[in-house]
């Protein structure tokens, strides 16, 4: 029997409405990267298994859990509508570590390693709340506030320590499993938070009113556009002298790279063998961009790469720098 496509069905019309603006090449790009995300998601399942196979302290040592957390009874649970995308939280709770003390490292003013900010968990991360050893994954939600001493979460179920003790007593055949205070563990839900944001960013390229500029640049590979702004900046009496001073230590190739970046409307990619001075150029570019009134976001695969660039800025920069990262990995 010949298959006849129902082009008048609401589903078909909706599909056409959402995808008719895309080319076959763009659709193939989406299919390829969605498949790659799915493969990576399969690898992340092992983190999910750790919730059932690894204790809270071990998970905490890897920065993916808060262990021995005590509910702050003075913080009254309230109904709230979270700012996390697509999620409504019914209840909010605040926790702190049992017997928690936050000393300050001498002479530095930095917080010690037991700060709640020192792991891989941050505001808006998806979390799972448990009580060891028997009540795992009793509720889920998001981190809504995080300080060195306290974490506030929005969750989808009520958390009542007295009710939890009764549930545990029933489950154990009448034996009390917990002391006078229930200790919670708050685990990062890597499987939920890890891929959801990546998938959202990918999909946003292809929506009808999505990020069309990046669709052209990233998917269709439209060449980036460069202007002659650098020449105009050099002629500017306010910025010109500063740019000349910043570029003075650079060689001709490094100056050319700096000029190309400052002329870029879209993006610029600097390639160079080790030792050719890429870090030096990046430091010079940061100084130039700040002098032009820009705010610069610097990121890398490793903490050491960021620290190397910041060390080049440490003595010559007359602007503020906010360094984010795990304290035991930052120089």
- Low-pLDDT ranges: 80-88, 104-111
Mean pLDDT: 83
CATH class of the domain at 64-187 reads Mainly Beta
Biggest sheet architecture: 6 strands, antiparallel, barrel
CATH architecture of the domain at 64-187, please? Beta Barrel
Which strand-content bin applies to the residues?
A: 5-15%
| Amino-to-carboxy terminus distance | 70 Å
Oligomer: single chain
Tell me the overall shape. Answer: globular
> Helix content range of the residues, please?
25-40%
Order of helices and strands: HHHEEEEEHEHHHHHHH
Q: Please, could you describe this protein's structure?
A:
- Helix 8 packs antiparallel against helix 10 (278-291), helix 9 (252-262) packs across helix 10 (278-291) and helix 10 packs across helix 11.
- With 331 residues, the protein is of the alpha+beta class.
- The model is unreliable at 80-88 and 104-111 (pLDDT under 50).
- It is 40% helix and 13% strand.
- Among the domains are: 64-187, Elongation Factor Tu (Ef-tu), domain 3 (Beta Barrel), CATH 2.40.30.270; 225-314, no CATH class.
- Strands 1-2-5-4-3-6 form a six-stranded antiparallel β-barrel.
């Amino acid at each position: 029997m010949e298959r006849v496509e129902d082009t008048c069905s609401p589903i078909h019309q909706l599909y056409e409405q959402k995808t008719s603006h895309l080319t076959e090449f763009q659709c193939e790009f989406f299919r390829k990267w969605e498949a790659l995300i799915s493969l990576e998601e399969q690898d992340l399942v092992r983190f999910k298994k750790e919730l059932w196979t690894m204790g809270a302290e071990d998970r905490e040592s890897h920065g993916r859990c808060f262990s021995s957390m005590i509910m702050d009874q003075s913080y009254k649970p309230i109904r709230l509508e979270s700012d996390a995308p697509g999620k409504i939280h019914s209840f909010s709770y605040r926790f702190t570590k049992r017997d928690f003390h936050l000393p300050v490292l001498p002479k530095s003013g930095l917080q010690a390693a037991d700060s709640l900010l020192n792991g891989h968990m941050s505001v808006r991360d998806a979390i799972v709340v448990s009580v060891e050893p028997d009540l795992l994954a009793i509720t889920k939600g998001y981190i809504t506030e995080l300080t060195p001493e306290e974490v506030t979460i929005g969750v989808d179920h009520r958390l009542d320590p007295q009710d939890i003790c009764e549930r545990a007593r029933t489950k154990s055949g009448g034996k009390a499993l917990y002391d006078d205070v229930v200790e919670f563990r708050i685990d990062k839900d890597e499987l939920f938070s890890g891929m959801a944001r990546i998938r959202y960013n990918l999909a946003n390229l292809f929506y009808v009113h999505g990020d069309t500029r990046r669709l052209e640049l990233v998917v269709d590979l439209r060449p980036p556009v460069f202007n002659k702004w650098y020449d105009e900046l050099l002629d500017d009496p306010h910025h010109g002298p500063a740019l000349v001073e910043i570029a003075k230590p650079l060689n001709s190739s490094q100056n050319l790279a700096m000029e190309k970046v400052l002329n870029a409307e879209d993006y610029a990619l600097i390639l160079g063998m080790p030792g050719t001075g890429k870090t030096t150029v990046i430091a010079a570019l940061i100084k130039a961009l700040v002098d032009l009134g820009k705010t610069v976001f610097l990121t890398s695969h490793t903490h050491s790469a960021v620290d190397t660039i910041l060390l080049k800025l440490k003595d010559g920069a007359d602007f503020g720098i906010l360094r984010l990262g795990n304290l035991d990995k930052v120089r």
